[in-house]
Amino acid sequence: MKLDVIIVGVGGQGILLASRVMGTLALQAGLDSKVSEVHGMSQRGGDVITHVRIGEKVLSPIIEEGTADAVIAFEQMEAARAMPFLKDGGLLVVGTQKIPPMPVLIGAATYPEGILDRLAESADVCALDALSMAIAAGSARAVNMALLGAFARRQALPQQQWLDAIAACVPPNTIEINKRAFLAGWELDGA
């Protein structure tokens, strides 16, 4: 098994936790894993990108442009920014949430329209309202798990292994909320 995944979003959305879950999953499945994180201005609402590589033997944590099997994007504009990493026909799991960057907030720019339609021209897109799923599961902070669930359903590893990795990575008092959000994404029609 070989899997290269880019995870992107805005600081505070749980991108690093999602990558930790994937790394833990790989280790629990007896696979090698490397994770690389770029925080940027994440504490100020800036973009965050992680590279997650899983396989029998992974030598480098960095995914080259045009080679990622999948991109998991927590926000539409971040999905568009990460598209150069995705290989032709790769999987894009994207939250439908829009988080306006500072130029949009101050009126110097407008948020682009039709992002998801343009992305669907070059990728296998699975778009979901992960924020609503997370809120229904018990916490808006579980957006990352809803997105992981939609992604995981399309992967070779069984659901229980994903749930075990989640339980190993999140605080004990949030395990059930995170599992509910993951299962909501997993059970999404068309995921």
Topology:
Blueprint: E1 3-10, H1 15-28, E2 32-38, E3 47-55, E4 68-73, H2 76-82, E5 86-95, H3 102-105, H4 115-119, E6 124-128, H5 130-137, H6 143-152, H7 159-169, H8 175-186
Parallel strand pairs: 1-4, 4-5, 5-6
Antiparallel strand pairs: 1-3, 2-3
Helix pairs in contact: 1-7, 5-6, 5-8, 6-8, 7-8
Structure report:
The protein is α/β, with parallel strands linked by helices. It has a single domain (3-186), classed as Pyruvate-ferredoxin Oxidoreductase, domain 3, CATH 3.40.920. Helices cover 37% and strands 24% of the residues. It has eight helices and six strands, in the order E-H-E-E-E-H-E-H-H-E-H-H-H-H. The chain has helices spanning 15-28, 76-82, 102-105, 115-119, 130-137, 143-152, 159-169, 175-186; strands spanning 3-10, 32-38, 47-55, 68-73, 86-95, 124-128. Helix 1 crosses helix 7. The longest helix is centred in the first third of the chain and has 14 residues, at 15-28. The relative contact order is 0.16.
